[in-house]
Amino acid sequence: QIMTMGLWWSTMRTRERWIVIINILFIFIFAGFIFNQSLSRPISNDDSSSRSTTVRLQGYVNDYCHKSLLKSVNGNEGELVGTSNEKYQLVQVHALIRHGDRSPIRKFDTQPTVNYECGMIDKNEKWLGLSDFNLKPNPPNARIIHINTPLFRGFESKICEMRLLTFEGSKQLYSIGSFFKRKYSHIVDTILDQSNVFIQCTDYRRTIHSASSFALGFLPDTSSVRKSIPIYVSNGNLLVVPPPNILQEYPDCKKIIQVNTLDKKASGYDQMLKTKRHAIDHLASIMNVRDSQQFTMADVFDQVWCRLCHNMPLPCGLKSCVNESLALEGAAVVHWSFSHRYPNKTSILAAQPYIYHSFVRQIDLAILNSNLKKPYFKFLFSFAHDSTITQLLTSLGVYESSWFPYATRIVVELWKDKTKKVDDPNMHFVRILLNGKSVMDKLHQYPVGYFEADGQLLSYTAWRESMVTGTYRDLETYKQICL
Fold first, then answer.
1. Is residue 243 within 8 Å of 138, Cβ to Cβ?
2. Helix and strand element counts for the chain (H, E)
3. Could you count the other beta carbons within 10 Å of the beta carbon of residue 386?
4. How many CA atoms lie within 13 A of 176 on its CB side?
5. Contact partners, residue 398, CB within 8 Å, separation at least 6
6. Are the beta carbons of 200 and 381 closer than 8 angstroms?
7. What is the predicted pLDDT for the residue at 93?
8. What's the rounded Cα separation, in Å, for the pair 167 and 158?
9. Which regions of the chain are under pLDDT 50?
10. How far apart are CA 385 and CA 201, in angstroms?
11. What is the pLDDT of residue 122?
């Protein structure tokens, strides 16, 4: 056979030989392309499920990117179902809101620069009102890195630096602010000013811009009102309390990192993480991210999230691109990772200063001063991060297995029974909502007898007791662990 092939080759003309050589090279190149594509695809027994993969991935994208906020905001804030609104009256509103859509947290040298828009390119004059707001450090002597951040970023196209709120993020928060203005208009019986509205955020530009965009939508469209209500900026990740209060009873937990390390080890998180990380490491290898183990899974997958939120192609490396199957697998892993990243003990200790000083203390003051017809904060809005949302919700007894979307909001409302006397300890109730939906049916730790209004309201007395005397929450135990 070899001799036959040799004779066949010798009888061919030079031109025919080149055609054969080129065809052979083409076959090798095509085979190599197919092989590289297979490297970027997790093992699957059924490639016919590509359409299902696309639909499932798009579901993750729609949820995490929270694009629906750009069209309309829906939710049950400010109203009870049925006839309960006739018996109960809303007294105070607390909201903790994650920043909106942002540019990537990290820039990997192996990935090309991707442009995310930060300018107010719709040129709507309403954005000029952002310049009215004043940033103030909280507490007053705190060293705030971004205290001079420009709130209005101009009408011209402007490419975002890393970690910044995009223009879409600004629109998301403005939409929520406008929605809250409509939903809570019935409890605004006086001019809004700094005596009844408190707004705070962490010392990050994306939360500062989120707070100002929300405030622009929520407050009356009057320059004097915007100038009268400052946005307080707290240093670090943790939020503090409305001035002039200070963190006396529950100071920040100084050992929270050590607690989290031991807490994750005890829960088996680290061990389970090793069995799930392969998808992210595979994704990192395609993007040529060196030493991927030094980055969290969220750091790596953030490159995918940001692109998907802006309808951009999935990232590529030198040889291949991330495909939808791998992106879907990575999304499932990072959702699991983030929902288990802060176990119960860590979440309670991290959230306790905020729960006590910003919730319990302010609700107590609202009850006292409303009975005395004195001013009190009717609205307390805080802007922070996905970790803050996770820790607070877990600490409240609500467990969600997801990486919370941009502009996620937790709302705690204080209501009172108008038929009861002022000195009745069972006059007031709390209601908790997540992205506009009540989560009261998930608070299984409270007996049924503590609920009213068909389960929509929980006795504030019972809730307050659990928030200051529950596991890890009593002041003595808290200080022993944290200080």
1. yes
2. 17, 10
3. 17
4. 32
5. 432, 434, 439, 442, 443
6. yes
7. 97
8. 10
9. 1-3, 5, 32-46
10. 10
11. 97
Question: How buried is residue 26: exposed, middle or buried, by Cβ count under 10 Å (0-12/13-18/19+)?
Answer: exposed
In this predicted structure, what is the pLDDT of residue 468?
94
CB 283: neighbour CB atoms within 10 A? Answer: 27
Quote the pLDDT of residue 19.
65
Extract the tokens encoding 27: 């076959």
| Nearest in space to 239 (alpha carbons), one of 266, 274, 199, 210 | 199
Residue 273 and residue 341: Cα distance in Å, rounded? 10
Residue-wise pLDDT tens digits, 158-178? 999 999 999 999 999 999 999
pLDDT for 398 equals 93
Token pair for 174? 């403005």
Q: What value, to the nearest 5°, has the Cα angle with vertex 202 and ends 201 and 204? A: 115
For the chain, how far is it from start to end, CA to CA, in angstroms? Answer: 84
Give which of 107, 313, 271, 71 is closest to 179, Cα–Cα.
71
181-224: per-residue pLDDT in tens?
A: 999 988 766 678 888 999 999 999 999 999 999 999 999 999 99
Contact 165, 204 (CB under 8 A): no
Token representation of residue 452 = 């009213």
pTM score: 0.88
- Cα-based torsion angle of the residue sequence 137, 140, 141, 142 in order, rounded to the nearest 10 degrees: -30
* Tokens matching residue 235: 């240093």
Report residue 127 as tokens. 């954005």
Find out whether 430 and 456 touch, Cβ atoms under 8 Å.
no
Rounded to whole angstroms, the Cα distance separating 365 from 379 reads 13
